[in-house]
Amino acid sequence: MRIKGLTGLAVRIEFKNAPRKEAAWLRSQPQGQTLSSAQLLETLKQRPLFDLGGLGSPFELACVVADADAPELRALLEALLDLAVEKGGRGELASFALDGEVRCWLWEDKKRALSARHSDPRVKTDFILLQKHRREAALAYVPPRKDTLRCACGVPVEPEAVVCASCECDFTTPIGIEVRPEDPERLRPMRARLMELKIPLPEGDLFVARVLRPRNAFEALTYEALMPGVGLQPLSRREMKRRVELLSELERWPVRYRLPGQTGEWRFTSWCSGTVRQARPSARKVLERLAKEQGDRFEEIKAVSLEESGWRAAGEVSGSSLFDFASDAEVVAHTLDFIQRFDGDRVELAAEYLVGLQRLAPDLLTAKERKRCEQYLDECAVRFGTGFWDYLKRRGLKAKSSAHALAAVLKEAGDPDAEDTTPRTLKDLSRGAVEWLADGRRPEVEDVKADWLVRELEALKRSKALPKILLQRAEEARRFPAPFGLTGALYWDVQPAPISEEDLKARAACPECNRRVQPTKVFHIPSLDADTEARTLRLYECEPCDRALLFARAVKQARSTRARARAVHEHKDANALGRPLPTGFVKWRHARFVSRRLQDKPLALQLQGLPRVSEAEDSDMDLRCGHPFVRIRIHAHQLDLQPGFGGGVVMGQLCMTPGCKKPDVRTARDD
Question: Which of 238, 12, 211 is nearest to 107 (CA)?
Answer without folding.
Answer: 12
